[in-house]
Amino acid sequence: MEKVIFIKYGELSTKKDNINFFLTKLKDNILFVLKDMRVNVSYDLGRMFIHTDDDLNKVIERVTNVFGIHEINVGYIIDSNDIKDVAPQVLELLKDKEFKTFKVETKRSNKKIEYTSIELSKMLGAEILKNIPDIKVQVNNPDILINVEYRKDNSLVYFEKIKGLGGYPVGTLGKGLLMLSGGIDSPVAGYMAIKRGVKIEAIYFESPPHTSIEAKNKVIKLARKLAKYNNDIVLHIVNFTAIQEEIYKNIPHEYLITIMRRMMYRISAIIAGRRNAKILVNGESIGQVASQTLTSMAAINEVVKIPVIRPLACFDKLDIIEIAKKIETYETSILPYEDCCTIFVPKHPVINPDKGKCLEYEKLIPYEEMIYKAVKEHEIIKIEEKEKKEFEDLL
Fold first, then answer.
1. Are 327 and 195 contacting, i.e. CB atoms less than 8 angstroms apart?
2. Which domains does the chain have, with CATH numbers?
3. Is the N end or the C end of the chain the one with fewer CB atoms within 10 Å?
């Protein structure tokens, strides 16, 4: 018997004619996170197998962060699909396990086998009862669940299931540009986009000296957290100081946030186009702040043609916080360093901005040449999750 890690696909199994494209990308993503380990990955349309003589727990820990996986199992390959060969091997595996109750669950992908799945379960259960004293079958909540899959040329036996992240393999649905602030919402929005197969790059707007180097490092740290799921992240850092100061000096203050966001969208769309990103992604949630009313979103959105995806649009704030804690971005997001979206917030921002007024006010500033300069001079950093510990030690 060979001990092996194998993966169940879940949603990917619905892809039919395109499934090989998704499985190839999933295999590539798994090899990426395991690139410093001794592994061999193979797959068929039913399962993907990770063969290794390295640390199994370390392999599993990394693979649990790969999207496109429904379930991870550590199991054993038996080179036969005959119950007469499988039963002795299962009994051998059960020698080291302590249990009083058990249940056998059988899947039979090879329909040429003469017995049904239920019959195979009963036959194996009878062998276990005959050879191991003082145990009994229990359908609900058994001490041990014995899973057996009878395949074309072999069988799989496993006892425990580890839930995967689901979703689609990263990169199968193209690229998006995440508008990453230092807040709670945008990293969660990035995570949700990655889950649907979108490979993300990120853009951050800094405004020195109004925003600090700590605020910038905070965003880099958040990008590292997301890189764990995205393989790596290209982070675009745009100096927004000149544009923000010009807006503050010339635009009626109730429109500061609206005009500022319109400028950010314009810059993001330009960079997205240059990086072949098909969508913008942000953490906006309907009604959460003044710029996230439906009227505000419409007024801000009109300056770009690229689709803007808001994964959290209908999420409750508490739901967003729960996900942020799960993906370990929450504690970083609440660090008290202001970003450029919060430093010049007016007392009474407009919640139903007029599009005509937006155009009228924007004529008061030479924004086109400032946008050109900001895009031309912006900083690009490639971030990899593997450097996380070394970076955090510097903070």
1. no
2. 2-166 (3.30.2130.30), 175-394 (3.40.50.620)
3. C
